[in-house]
Amino acid sequence: MAASTDDGSRDPLPLLLVALTVTTGLVDAISVLGLGRVFTANMTGNVVFFGFAVGGAEGFEAPRYIVALAAFLAGAALGGMLGKALSGATRRRWLLTVAVVECSLLGAAALVAIGYDIESLVPTTRLYALILLTALAMGLRNATVRQLRVPDLTTTVLTLTLTGLAADSSIAGGGNTLWGRRLAAVLSIFAGASIGTVLVIRTGLSLPLAITGLFVLIATAAYALHPASRTVAGKGDR
Hints:
The protein is mostly helical and about 240 residues long.
């Protein structure tokens, strides 16, 4: 699954992205189960839910989706700015910078979640703060991964990944290209969502948020130890 670098060594960047995909499942479990039917990683779901709210469906609150979408866009803008500002630096410095910011946002969310009730969604101020912080973090992540341009590893969206898995399969007459990383991405989100569900139900939101932030930082730091991370930012895998 690793890609080749200019010197012929194996770049484990795809492995890092698979690891980060696990955290998407965790964040989805946290947001959908603990923040009142809102996604802070998957904006397609939010647009659909926003439509439900506008159409008058019960249980869907438009303000939650507006905050999530706005925060996600702000995070994506921040990710774009960081990518441009660090375009001449090593990928190690760029990704570690992003990981520290993302971990900080998720860590702040973990602190905000202390005393928050996932059953009644109160205090309301904490509900919206949690939506804001987690959507900011995931917008930042999406913008960064988009700039890396690693095929089929967006870390958050699986629609095109699943499409590629089926369309390029031997059943469809394809060559089963990239099936390994595609399947890994699907299984990673599934695993993260399953683990996140258990944690949210048993412990609330603080622990899974803290675990998610630490996992992002540890996984990125592990990648930073590899020589391939010295690649100049902007020379993403294709």
